[in-house]
Amino acid sequence: MKIAVIGLGYIGLPTAIMFANHDQRVIGIDLKADAVNMLNAGKIHIEEPGLQTELTKALLSGNFKAQLDLEEADVFIIAVPTPNKADAYRTCDLKYVKNAVKKTLPYLKKGNVMIVESTIAPRTTEDVVKPILEENGLIVGEDIFLVHCPERVLPGRIIHELVHNNRIIGGLTPACIEAGKKVYGIFVQGELIEATAGAAELSKLMENTYRDLNIALANELAKIGDTLGINALEVIEMANKHPRVNLHQPGPGVGGHCLAVDPYFIVATTPQNTPLIQQARAINNSMPNFIAEKVKGLMEAINGKKITFLGVTYKGDVDDIRESPALEIIELLGKETTFEFAIFDPHVKASWVEPDLEKAVEGSDLICVLTDHSEFKMITAEKLAGMRQQHIFDTKNVIPKIETVAIYNMGNLHEMQKSSKKLVPIAE
């Protein structure tokens, strides 16, 4: 079977390589020449554990190649971005999906399978993609088998979860579902769940919306605890000992191209029915400003001059900065204050990121932890010796206890200014 994967990003590339390493001929299509050249030279352009090894294997087998231009195939998998539009409900922008579908038209032949993996608004497959194919004389379910099959993987575990997670196969007809199952049955060991395309679309969106709402509840609890002088993290720990409670952890906000984006696709489709989803989005969107205000208050209380930010990705142990609340917090403080900044993130290579932790914290009055990278869980007092004042605001609750350092988190926010007045500079 020959498979064309359109879009070689965080999902498209692992998917393409997985098919290649299960004896399928795969061409990966991307608009970025640099990415194509890197992949054909044997180097991945995104960070994901195990992916480099899998790419090397795929190239050595001769089953995978990356290129700019599309060609004929048996299966076309569309894995392109679906950003939000800048409208009132942040509607799903389908321009990349529609362009990808249209680019396949000259190469489609009877019996082909088209799979949309991109996360899309409910009814997109039936109301948007299907008409493009029909306008070109193709009968869905007879000439072309159209399927929506959303990915359900966790960055950092993509290789494992592509194989072992259950997979929803949302087809427009029973024949489409069977065609989709045949494709993913090549390597998926989890259950292949049969569904309509619309149900598959909405299921993916609701999975991420559920998590977004749970995080919003935790973030609201952190604010409640701050107001009432109660440790919210202790409350969550105790509540989760109940057999039917699973509160998430609060943090600086929600980022990435799933939780911060997908709920809006539901809202935009039916705004009158989604007040809860909209409120959760508002709560999570408020967190960067809430954190920035807490940072300002602490810096004013200690007469601080320099802040060192640890982590700018939207989650730990990845290099993905899409929709990152960390960047929003830094931008807010940059606009509203005159503090000096340093940024350290071991997973991000950029001119504005200091690659050395000790240099980043030198002369700093406050460290603000915004991402839960594993490296931060091993920080020692020696690494922080160059700080002017030793205060840490750990929004992800990952820094180990250090006797000489005042550490604040999302549970003891109410102690920040009260405790800071008792502390003195460590070094001048």
* Class derived from helix and strand content: alpha/beta
Strand content: 5-15%
Major beta sheet, specifics? 8 strands, mixed
- Separate helix tally: 14
**Shape label:** globular
E-strand count: 13
Determine the N-to-C terminus distance: 67 Å
Question: Low-confidence runs (pLDDT<50, min 5 residues)?
Answer: 421-428
Would you identify the CATH architecture of the largest domain?
A: 3-Layer(aba) Sandwich
Mean pLDDT: 94
Q: Helix and strand string, N-terminal first?
A: EHEHHEEHEHEHEHEHHHHEHEHEEEH
CATH H level, superfamily name of the largest domain: NAD(P)-binding Rossmann-like Domain
Q: Can you give the helix content as a percent range? A: 25-40%
Widest sheet, order of strands: 3-2-1-4-5-6-7-8
Radius of gyration: 24 Å
CATH domain fold name of the largest domain: Rossmann fold
Give the oligomer, counting copies of the same chain as homo and different chains as hetero: single chain
Q: CATH first level of the largest domain: which class?
A: Alpha Beta
Overall number of domains:
2
Organism: Listeria rocourtiae
Family: Belongs to the UDP-glucose/GDP-mannose dehydrogenase family.
Protein name: UDP-N-acetyl-D-mannosaminuronic acid dehydrogenase
GO molecular function: NAD binding; oxidoreductase activity, acting on the CH-CH group of donors, NAD or NADP as acceptor; oxidoreductase activity, acting on the CH-OH group of donors, NAD or NADP as acceptor
Brief digest:
Helices cover 38% and strands 14% of the residues.
